[in-house]
């Protein structure tokens, strides 16, 4: 029998599970294992879930300090490749402020309407003063580091951003003489993004640990005490993410909002699980690029947003938390207090710095209003559950604003936007140095 007439052999191939499905499976497994650990009092399972979640978060944090430094430095120097760079930077900051104001207004409105602190059964004695509290003096004086090592060892992102911004501006002033440093910085940034990408691939496993530990440690009965407050945070974030953002995209950017979520979903779902804007930053940048925003502008706007654009953590959450804590401690808030909350949300959002949790921003808000800092302890137990939707909202906003600005400035590639797919996060790869990532094919 000739070779040509031979029957072809077919090798069975295991179908590739989409990343979003892996995340969902991790969520389900985490809930089930957490429930099992709590209901059956399985100590070793509870400890294992905690350790798995902690290791995942620690791996994300490991890359945060150098990633923020080189991302901000490179993003500032990349502005030299963009026409009207100062105008773009100004418009980006303006839209950050506009969307933050809208978000904090929604948070205040929901809080005043629902009275989240009423009927909880919580008292002053349930609160605990945090070890570290944020204040305006600490915020302002803490921007400038005392040395160049401590901010990296203590993970003070605000100081790292300051040093990176200074280095970036200095590099722009030096011009061609700074090119060796810029080339080195771009290479290091690509290396860090590649390494972080490996960590991101572990997100489904990290999800099992993070969700499982939250359920095992806190249980559903704790959520019951905070039912109204938890619902308020999720509803507020949902209104901003699925109401305000689509409205702005449709009316200001004049693009299809559904297409935005189709393209940006990999970053939003990863943010929900990882609870870290900075950890999600490489994915956010890539999905923003495939939505048609020029890479040179994206490389500035997304890192800038990952450290300052926090509609969930710095607008909706502190507004609701302030009302919640004021009601628990029986403190009456006036119009001037609500205006102060809005001011802190817009100006002080950089204090959250893209890290897991929003405790610094909350203490900054409470100290500004003169509310007891013991109120922070009331919310720490429920914080992991809230932080998922807060971070997802943060990241959605960090992608929305560049699209709006690019559309207004007529630099948005509308064909790329309209063809952006909902391909899994696996396809949003980090490109080689100096090479623009290709827009993924439709899934």
From TrEMBL:
Pfam families: SDF (PF00375). Residues 418-443 are annotated as: Disordered. The chain crosses the membrane at residues 17-35, 55-76, 88-113, 157-174, 195-213, 233-253, 314-333, 339-364. GO terms for cellular component: plasma membrane. Coiled coil: none annotated. Its main location: membrane. The keyword Ligase does not apply. It is found in: Cell membrane. GO terms for biological process: dicarboxylic acid transport. The keyword Lyase does not apply. One of its GO terms (molecular function) is symporter activity. InterPro entries: Na-dicarboxylate_symporter (IPR001991), Na:dicarbo_symporter_sf (IPR036458). It is a multi-pass membrane protein. Keywords: Cell membrane, Membrane, Transmembrane, Transmembrane helix, Transport. PANTHER family: PROTON/GLUTAMATE-ASPARTATE SYMPORTER, PROTON_GLUTAMATE-ASPARTATE SYMPORTER. This is Dicarboxylate/amino acid:cation symporter. The lineage of its organism: Bacteria, Bacillati, Actinomycetota, Actinomycetes, Kitasatosporales.
